[in-house]
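Exam revision sheet. Question 4 asks you to relate a sequence to its structure. Input first:
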Amino acid sequence: MLQLAALAASTAAGRLRELALHECAHVTDDGIVALAAGCRHLCSVSLAHTAVGDRGVQALASGCRELTRLRLDGCRIGEPSVRALAGACHALRHLSVDGCDVSCAALTQLLPPALPSLRTVVLGKRWGSRAGHASALTRESDERRELLHELRSRRTDLQVFRSGDSRDLRLGSRAYWPAGRADH
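Answer key, structure tokens:
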């Protein structure tokens, strides 16, 4: 946390546009709260596989409203994070939440008019697999169908992809994550 707070307090913080902290296990909500307060012009952030949760994402959303790309794969986030992003990050174009406990109901909050620029949402193989019994799995399938219906009714330009695993659903294209940037 101390290094992120020092970065946020530095004179260069105001000019920082991209930050990749993916797989830095010691990055926590406290560090992101400090960072968001000083690095208000961040556009691209990768926090994948860090210890960041809802509090950190909420601070990032309220402090860094110019975000266009955000990678949160494997983070401990849920509906509070999605609500914060939908309410504050109107420039957000690409969001990756693979391995996060984000429901279909929460994801619909990201759709226009909330985030009119959103083009890509990566959900990944583990999305919708938090249930352990048949009725819960059926509910997850129903939620996925409802989300697809909602997407089709609101966004004709948003493409929906499925991989070999029926639970892997990607909206848009991974091509929006340039090689070497927020894609590890």
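Marking note for examiners. The two ends are 22 Å apart (CA to CA).
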